[in-house]
């Protein structure tokens, strides 16, 4: 089994994107792979972090495509379980009037059937035991009670790895469920990533200091969209402004930020550099229509990670 520094645990989905116009009128769709945790896994691998992705997929054509896509991006997928009955989830992106609308088809999916016992599978257990960091999100906690219980077990049992959780608050997935398990997951995490806007809805505040106190997080990153990213940790507070970006599509940018920040954490970068790497990887995705994109070249990353504050502020990223 290849050694992996990071493991991403959670749902993957097939994304079908049509052309402009109402969904009822679209005849041809373009297929790609989406899902928060696999987006982060691909982003980490692209930044040179040995990364695995663990989940369940339908034993169908879409599931095979997910495996091939992630493997082609350098992600280790040997811990994935294939379900002969339940399907791989998918979502459809509708572009109408300049807006992107998402239509999700994930009920009864293979990933939603994850249970606490999934962690006992030898392929899963061995990968978790060797990982330095394990990343998941509130989406996987939301897709079923079983997957939520699985993540609670992951967070509360003794562990050697750092646990990273991105809130990814999706109110529709929690409509008939108590979000208290998500609060417990966030409070048990070593690293929490959260958007200021979603925090306002989920926690009633987007204030970084208040969130840090309420979550008891060791490391908390609050992303204020196109304005600022704030890092709070025991050593203090760090703020880095976002880059000026020509935005094509916002979906996937939060996952890219997480990948950049977590890669910087594993690579021992400074607080400012960790946030800058998050901004850089998010900017790359913002300039493309897909949910993921190659990060800037190593030379460009090195230049901007070590730029002065004035050079950073003057940087503009154009659409590809």
Describe the protein:
The chain has 320 residues and is of the alpha/beta class. 37% of the residues lie in helices and 25% in strands. The chain is built from twelve helices and 16 strands. The protein has helices at 36-46, 61-72, 122-130, 138-142, 145-156, 180-188, 196-203, 208-215, 253-266, 271-286, 298-305, 309-313; strands at 6-9, 13-20, 29-34, 51-54, 56-58, 81-83, 90-96, 99-105, 133-137, 162-166, 191-195, 219-224, 228-233, 236-241, 244-245, 316-317. The strands form four sheets. Strands 4-1-9-10-11-12-13-14 form an eight-stranded mixed beta sheet, sandwiched between helices. The protein is globular, with a radius of gyration of 19 Å. The two termini are 37 Å apart.
Strand-helix topology:
Blueprint: E1 6-9, E2 13-20, E3 29-34, H1 36-46, E4 51-54, E5 56-58, H2 61-72, E6 81-83, E7 90-96, E8 99-105, H3 122-130, E9 133-137, H4 138-142, H5 145-156, E10 162-166, H6 180-188, E11 191-195, H7 196-203, H8 208-215, E12 219-224, E13 228-233, E14 236-241, E15 244-245, H9 253-266, H10 271-286, H11 298-305, H12 309-313, E16 316-317
Parallel strand pairs: 1-4, 1-9, 2-7, 5-6, 9-10, 10-11, 11-12, 15-16
Antiparallel strand pairs: 2-3, 7-8, 12-13, 13-14
């Amino acid at each position: 089994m290849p050694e992996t520094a990071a493991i991403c645990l959670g749902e993957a989905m097939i994304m079908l994107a049509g052309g402009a116009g109402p969904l009822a009128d679209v005849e041809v769709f373009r297929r790609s792979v989406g899902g928060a945790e696999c987006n982060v896994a691909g982003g980490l691998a692209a930044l040179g972090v040995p990364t695995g992705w663990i989940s369940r997929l339908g034993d169908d054509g879409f599931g095979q495509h997910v495996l091939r896509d992630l493997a082609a991006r350098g992600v280790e997928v040997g811990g994935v379980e294939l379900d002969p009955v339940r399907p791989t989830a998918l979502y459809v992106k509708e572009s109408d009037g300049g807006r992107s609308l998402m239509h999700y088809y994930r009920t009864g999916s293979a990933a939603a059937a994850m249970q606490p016992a999934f962690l006992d599978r030898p392929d899963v257990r061995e990968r978790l035991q060797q990982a330095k960091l394990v990343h998941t999100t509130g989406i996987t906690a939301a897709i079923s009670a079983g997957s939520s219980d699985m993540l609670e077990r992951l967070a509360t049992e003794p562990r050697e790895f750092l646990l990273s959780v991105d809130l990814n608050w999706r109110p529709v997935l929690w409509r008939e469920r108590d979000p208290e398990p998500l609060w417990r997951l966030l409070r048990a995490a070593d690293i929490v990533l959260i958007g200021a806007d979603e925090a306002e809805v989920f926690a009633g505040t987007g204030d970084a200091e208040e969130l840090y106190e309420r979550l008891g997080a060791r490391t908390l990153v609050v992303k204020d969209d196109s304005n600022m990213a704030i890092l709070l940790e025991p050593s203090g507070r760090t703020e880095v402004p976002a880059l000026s970006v020509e935005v094509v599509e916002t979906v996937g940018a939060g996952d890219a930020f997480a990948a950049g920040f977590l890669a910087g954490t594993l690579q021992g970068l400074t607080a400012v550099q960790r946030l800058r790497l998050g901004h850089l990887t998010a900017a790359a995705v913002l300039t493309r229509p897909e949910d993921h994109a190659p990060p800037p070249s190593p030379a460009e990353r090195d230049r901007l990670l070590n730029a002065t504050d004035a050079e950073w502020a003057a940087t503009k990223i154009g659409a590809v």
